[in-house]
Specification:
This protein is mainly β. The protein contains two helices and twelve strands; from the N terminus they run βββββαβββββββα. It is about 5% helix and about 45% strand. The relative contact order is 0.15.
Length: about 180
């Protein structure tokens, strides 16, 4: 399995017991939907390695308590700490028409209410306090916060997103 065929589920943040149990901090508003998992992919030495699940339960609101097959000791569990966990893209839950996953909108055309067409989404920057659309426009980079108040319409069929950004936000990139 290749990383580009997967989505980020979360990160192994700590051990839970001396018998190899681990806690995965899930990057989801609804971690309960992952309680039936049979396996996950763990990024280990730049490869995605499948790990099969013996037991899984919810631990607090965003944590999955997981016991992997063949991970039976504290030492085994230590080796997986701080590793990222992935699932195949086809396991992503269906979204409503007005919702999107970040990977879905790469390449979408962006049209702003005041400025018209402002470019194409190159990527989503998700490592800041607020995720940002990274838009390419005439060899310039425009960064716009992903904010429900700015998004007027999402047209998945035509790969277009319509925005109504605050005055001055886009202008500062074009000057």
């Amino acid at each position: 399995m290749q990383k580009e065929d997967c989505f980020y589920l979360g990160k192994i943040v700590s051990k839970f017991s001396f018998k190899g149990e681990l806690l995965i901090k899930v990057d989801s508003d609804d971690p309960e939907q992952y309680l039936e998992l049979e396996s996950v992919f763990v990024e280990y030495r730049k490869n995605l390695i499948p790990f099969f699940i013996d037991r899984i339960s919810l631990q607090k609101s965003q944590l999955l308590r997981v016991k992997f097959e063949d991970i039976d000791t504290e030492e085994d569990a230590n080796d997986l700490l701080k590793k990222e966990v992935y699932l195949p893209l086809e396991m992503l839950p269906e979204l409503d028409d007005d919702q999107f996953y970040y990977h879905e909108i790469i390449g979408f055309k962006v049209i702003d209410k005041a400025h018209g067409e402002i470019g194409i989404i190159k990527s989503v920057i998700d490592n800041s306090a607020q995720p940002l659309f990274d838009i390419s426009y005439q060899e310039k980079q425009i960064l716009i916060p992903i904010n429900d108040d700015f998004i007027e319409k999402l047209d998945k069929d035509n790969h277009t997103i319509y925005l109504n950004t605050p005055e001055g936000l886009i202008t500062m990139y074009l000057e």
